[in-house]
Amino acid sequence: MSNKLVASLSCVFKLAVKLLNSEFLCISMQPITIKEALKLDAIYVDTRSPAEFEKDHIPNSLNIPIFDNKERAEIGTIYKQNQDKAYEVGFGLYEGKLADLKKQLNKLDKNTKIVVYCWRGGLRSKTISELTEKLGYEVNQLEGGYKSYRAYMRKWYENYKLPFKFIMLQGLAGCGKTDLLKALHKKGIPIIDLEGLARHRSSLFGAIGLEPREQKAFETELYTKINELSNEKLVFIEGEAHKVGKIFVPNLIFSEMEKSVKIRINCSIENRSERIVKDYFSHGEDEKIKEIIKTLKKYFSNKNYQEMLKCLGEKNYYEVSRILLENYYDPRYGRIVDELKYDRTIDNDDFENCVGELVKFYEDLN
């Protein structure tokens, strides 16, 4: 590597490290706005660290980071103490990764538009944009980076009007609403599974066996799903409160749920209890379940509370589920289910028959 190129790259990384610790921005020679970018059939290259990427990213993005999580944190720490040293470390890391970065970029389809972004459209994305262009790709750097995408998403959720109406499934806990949505999806019926998108079952026990998404990632997943269904007239959805775990359901969805066609799903306490066992007690997280039950002590008689703990210790999960349903979930949420006005009521003790009736209801309405 020539001394001239080394000096040039060193300068770039001085600015790149500064970007990680300040408000400094650099404008690309080939900018593109997020609104323009989302109209393209493009591949997005996210140059942020893997941790930033994991929290949320633009749909159809690949993560090709300049710094990994540890490196980004270390450079930030060094920068606070000695800026020149931080520049030197940053450049050294980039120089050592240049061959691998080229290898990753060369795997991209040269017939597809490439849009490169970082947090705010600064030096990380500029560096990779220029490198990608030199490798023979048609490249744009995203103006404002991921931050501009989030601003676009906020406005989209505020102003977008759904092109379809909901058929909402409602019923007591454990009646099988989520399982029914999945079965309908397999039959080609359009659905939105909010709990699946949130990776949370929308209860105090909802995160058991799952890794819940953060709000931003949920909104991206929901945005993608809504766009996939843009040509549909009717879409099945499960009745939810305004929150699924820690995730807020956007008003765009919640307001339409209130105006939806509503179907009540009934199911026996026996089958509901068995479904709760399957959903919550098959992940080896009995201690977490026990701690959650302890927070609910005030809702149970001492007899039922002690019986639950005893049955949990004996792995009699069916009985734990039955007590939870009869003494906590049904009294607490049953009134909400009962107060709604329904267009149809379907029994789900025969699952396949229930799916068949839902399909017929959809076809008749559609």
What would CATH call the architecture of the largest domain? 3-Layer(aba) Sandwich
CATH class of the largest domain: Alpha Beta
User: Beta-strand level of the residues, as a percent range?
Assistant: 5-15%
Q: What class would the helix/strand composition place it in?
A: alpha/beta
- Low-confidence spans: 4-12, 19-28
Query: Rg to the nearest angstrom?
Result: 26 Å
**N- and C-termini, Cα separation:** 65 Å
Q: Based on DSSP secondary structure assignment, what is the total number of beta strands?
A: 12
The name CATH uses for the topology of the largest domain is Rossmann fold
Number of helices: 16
- Helix percentage: 40-55%
Secondary-structure element order, N to C:
HEHEHEHHEHEHEHEHHEEEHEHHHHEH
Shape assignment: globular
- The main sheet orders its strands as 1-5-4-2-3
Write the topology of this structure.
Elements: H1 3-19, E1 31-32, H2 34-37, E2 42-46, H3 50-55, E3 61-63, H4 69-81, H5 83-105, E4 113-117, H6 123-134, E5 139-142, H7 145-159, E6 165-170, H8 177-186, E7 191-192, H9 194-198, H10 215-228, E8 234-238, E9 243-244, E10 247-248, H11 251-258, E11 261-266, H12 269-280, H13 286-295, H14 302-313, H15 317-339, E12 344-347, H16 351-365
Parallel strand pairs: 1-5, 2-3, 2-4, 4-5, 6-8, 6-11, 7-8, 11-12
Antiparallel strand pairs: 9-10
